[in-house]
Write a structure and sequence with these properties.
There is one protein chain. Helix content is 42%, strand content 13%. By secondary structure, it is an alpha/beta fold. The chain has two domains: 236 residues, Aspartate Aminotransferase, domain 2 (3-Layer(aba) Sandwich), CATH 3.40.640; 126 residues, Aspartate Aminotransferase, domain 1 (Alpha-Beta Complex). The strands form three sheets. Strands 1-9-8-5-4-2-3 form a seven-stranded mixed beta sheet, sandwiched between helices. Strand 4, helix 7 and strand 5 form a beta-alpha-beta unit. The two termini are 26 Å apart. It binds pyridoxal-5'-phosphate. The site of pyridoxal-5'-phosphate has 15 residues, from helix 4 and helix 5.
Length: 371
Amino acid sequence: MIPQNNPLANYLTHKPAIDAAISRVLTRGHYVLGDETITFEQQFADYTNTEYAVSVGSGTEALHLALRGCGVGPGDEVITVSHTAVATIAAIEMCGAAPVVVDIDSVSYTIDPQYVEGAITERTKALVPVHLYGQPSDLKPLVECARRHHFFLIEDCAQSHGALYHGRKVGVWGDAGAFSFYPTKNLGCLGDGGAVVTNSSDLYDKLLALRQYGWDQERISRVAGYNSRLDELQAAVLQVKLQHLDENNRKRRSVARTYGQLLDSLNIILPAEIPGSAPVYHQYVIRCEDRSTRDNLRKFMLQRGIQSAIHYPVPVHLQPAYINRLGSYCSFPVTEKICETIISLPMFPELTQEDLDKITTVIRQFFQQTG
Ligand SMILES: Cc1ncc(COP(=O)(O)O)c(C=O)c1O
């Protein structure tokens, strides 16, 4: 079976170095917020070209604490998209704020900047573009809009470690960038983890407090905080994995190029490379002409030993937990249409040419058989 993603393959590729890092932490005897975490945070800030990185317990927490650190709370509104992981919306609601959803662009699958102006009210406190599938959102108009209207811009970079927009990495364009290190991400640890990057020393100080009970240096809680810390084992593993992030992103881009060549001229829409952007293909997402073709293709692939996924099958505003709050005020035609027709093909750096030949041959067979 060819899996849709494969964190085990990535561990095995770097096993000696990862095992050594884990063993170093085990025998050092310091397991939470120690030297490994400090070192990784410095390395990740360097990697993203930011002044500060604060590691936290997950990508959801990275978004939540970044929003909190910017003062987002009850009564505020945060503009984002519904074509995302539920976590984006959940993090906004964890602050007590109201998510305000707008539609996406049908080519990049990221927030369509033309809808943002219309969603702004006097309660708008922040904008959260999501660089879904490793594709940067069109940040320039978003940054300009956030500046003009004086609200915060926090990038959801959970799927886009190392992606470039007009030559600069994502995560640095607004007030903060929030990253996830969930095992299947482009930079993944062996459990949960996340980080916020920022150039603001004020936000940095707030994040350090928020992730640990609101403590100051003397362990006095000046604000009400949380417990959201990356542990030393994960920080040590991430130091190893970070060294290979660019190389792995290159491999993902190469897999995407091969897919593009081998799936050319079929009745599917392939992912677009937007001028000015260098996506990092957290997912390689193709689109079929309708839902039944999509579902039949997935079945056909699975019967021949190829897993696929749908990111995401139901937009957040239509999911039972959210429909009463988000789904009642509007519909989002591009988001809704896209969710019905997308498939995430296998995508991870260790995919071989043989795997890619098999996957693309099976997809071609499907379209030959169905005419
Ligand atoms: C776009 C997006 N945002 C946020 C998150 C949340 O990250 P985590 O699962 O580490 O909390 C994810 C992870 O699935 C994601 O894909």
